[in-house]
Write a structure and sequence with these properties.
This protein is an alpha+beta fold. Helix content is 46%, strand content 21%. Helix 1 packs across helix 3, helix 8 crosses helix 9 and helix 9 crosses helix 12.
């Protein structure tokens, strides 16, 4: 269909992020489209007594009346809708809701469509803010805890006789038994190494393992209180059948120079502590940078209020839940969505702020930026530049890279144009 010249369009701002369009397609356009459609159907029509393309036009129109009407409406709405979007600089964010489609006796087609669009944003201020930056120093206690965590990872589990005491570990299988005495695959676990008498007061299953020794079909019952944090367990008495394959004593390595050699190929514990402290300080710096960046964006969003399209928020929530499920955690969408909604809304606002600042300050990604980023990635990965370049041959991959670089450039610009006051943590 060629461009329609007498298209009547009314665009209504039906919400902060929603537009409604009322469209009337002139009869001359509809009739011309119908003529082409009938001619096409006539060529292929199979009507008894006539070869394809030879049936009388009136007979074709009568036989295929409903199909002609449906296809005509579909074609005209689809084609003119795209023209309306182009003519009015409209960019839907979701699938349009097309309704009230009508083909009148005079061959005028009218329809209404609703869809979400990006909000109109005018950033009043995004420079000159003062943001607090925590100046956290790595303490000796934090260093000792990290060393102890490394030590714990190097522990050995030595078999021993007798029953498990607090702090011992059991290699076991277990299954959950329902009220009828039946078990299911969902309630089974095999070859689990579980600590008996864990110090966490909520680890009730762990507490019940104290006193168990090697043996099959050992029955334990755990009473979970009404205020237990796990919704699936609170207020329940759960029966477990446990097969203990062995009791293990946890043997911790000595914190000496040989330990430093074992875990980091260093000559002494002093060198290990120095290395761990430096890593902790790097982590603190990165965390502080992330916190400062988030605080800055929250300040910008606070000072520049605007609505966000619900569809983008929902898409962000769905992506967050999908990411969590990929990690093996089964979560309920209805329960989890309200929890993450504020963070999802902030994430969408942040993206709009980035885009608006980039436009306002004419921040763009040059070819040199792309070359520099690929060289940087190659250096980090230890791969030849030519090999890394191959990863960005597709348009989609290159667009993602450009987007990442643009975000970094905008963030750098905002950090350069706002003040950060260091405060003690």
């Amino acid at each position: 269909m060629s461009e329609v010249t007498d298209l009547k369009v009314e665009v209504t701002e039906s919400g902060p992020c929603e537009r409604t369009i009322d469209v009337a397609v002139p009869a001359v356009t509809v009739k011309a489209e119908r003529e082409k459609l009938v001619a096409q159907i006539r060529k292929e029509a199979k009507i008894k007594g006539f070869r394809p393309g030879k049936a009388p036009r009136q007979m074709v129109e009568k036989t295929y009346a409903e199909s002609i009407r449906e296809e005509l409406l579909q074609n005209v709405v689809a084609e003119t809708f795209q023209q309306v979007l182009k003519d009015n600089d409209l960019y839907p964010l979701d699938r349009p809701m097309v309704e009230e489609v009508d083909l009148a006796d005079d061959f005028v087609i009218k329809y209404k469509a609703r869809f979400e669009v990006s909000p109109k944003i005018e950033l009043k201020q995004y420079k000159g803010f003062e943001i607090e930056k925590k100046n956290h120093k790595v303490t000796d206690e934090e260093l000792d805890k990290t060393i102890e965590d490394i030590r714990d990872q190097q522990a050995q589990f030595q078999p021993r006789e007798g029953v498990a005491g607090k702090g011992d570990y059991l290699l076991l299988d277990f299954r959950v038994v329902d009220e009828e005495g039946a078990t299911s695959d969902e309630g089974k676990r095999e070859n689990q190494m579980v600590m008996a008498g864990h110090e966490d007061e909520l680890a009730l299953f762990s507490h019940s393992l104290v006193g168990l020794g090697e043996g099959a079909d050992q029955k334990i019952e755990v009473d979970f209180p009404e205020d237990y944090p796990d919704e699936t367990l609170k207020g329940r008495k759960v029966t477990y059948i446990v097969d203990v394959k062995g009791v293990r004593e946890k043997i911790m390595p000595e914190l000496d120079d040989s330990f430093a050699k074992q875990v980091a190929q260093l000559d002494s514990m002093d060198e290990l502590r120095k290395m761990v402290r430096e890593r902790l300080e790097d982590e603190v710096t990165r965390r502080n940078d992330r916190d400062v960046e988030e605080a800055l964006f929250r300040k910008i969003v606070e000072e520049n209020q605007f609505d966000v399209p619900p569809s983008l928020v929902e898409a962000t929530i769905e992506q967050q839940i999908a990411n969590i499920r990929q990690q093996g955690r089964d979560i309920d969408m209805e329960q989890f969505a309200p929890v993450v909604r504020p963070a999802a809304e902030f994430s969408v606002r942040r993206e709009y702020v980035l885009s608006e600042v980039a436009k306002a300050e004419k921040i763009e990604v040059a070819d040199e930026d792309i070359t520099a980023r690929i060289e940087q990635l190659a250096g980090q990965l230890g791969h030849p530049v030519e090999e890394v370049q191959k990863d960005f041959r597709s348009r989609e991959a290159m667009d993602r890279l450009r987007s990442m670089i643009l975000v970094d450039k905008v963030v750098d610009f905002l950090k350069e144009n706002n003040e950060f006051k260091e405060v003690e943590d």
